[in-house]
Specification:
This protein is mostly beta strands. It is built from 4 helices and 16 strands.
Amino acid sequence: MRRAPVLLTTAVAVAALAGACSSSSTPEPSGTTADPGPAGTAAATEGTAAGGTTPGTDVRPAGALRDQYGERYCEVLTVTVSEVNTQAEVWGTQGLNDCPADAFAGIDPAAAAADLGTTLALPNGPRYWVLDDIVANQLAGSGERHSFNGLEMRSIAIVDLGPGIPDRQPYAGSSVNRDTEFRFDAGREVYELTADDGTVYIMQSYSIEIDPTLTADDLAGLGDRLALPEGWTFRARTLDEPLVVEDVDGIATVIQDELRNSYQLLPQG
């Protein structure tokens, strides 16, 4: 039996999942490079009716997306609230299409939640990667494809949010189940948050949901704009050598700032 959707206010829904979004990308099979442009969009949406779900028969446990810096994508998080452990399944356009604005804006969250039998559905984005390559060592989501208002997405990750209706705020971490490497090339400018305990988080993507005018050129100056927690700092730096950011035992810790830009924990050592 499908669960009737529970409609939360936008403010509560956003607070509930801050830090959980922009969780992962499930690349195409190893040895291929996904085309997020118009041709890729047409191929991705062919044969899938609006609101339909199809098995991810062409998705393998490993693969890669190359040259992702500046690529646009968006997601829908379908959330099942539980008193034991609330979970969000992340559906994303990564590797399928570039998230056409009209299709994304037309997604009906209540209809999406009802269609998939979840408590609620939350659109996330549009977003832009600030990394170079993504390598998935194991499939994190189910790999199924689903059409949201004609916009095809794929199940790419599961986010654990704790019991009950989550109350996440900016700069609060969420655990994302995935086995993925995020790779940054030497010479790439990166953006880091350092917590008061010395923990470092590196930006993986920026969002234009809150500020539609935000561009990559603005990111280095975010330190003057963000209302960071006491003792936290922001910095931009240029990499002298390539950087690979991995999960820890299949779990990635992700936070967001108040603009919904997403950062992943940099493992120590």
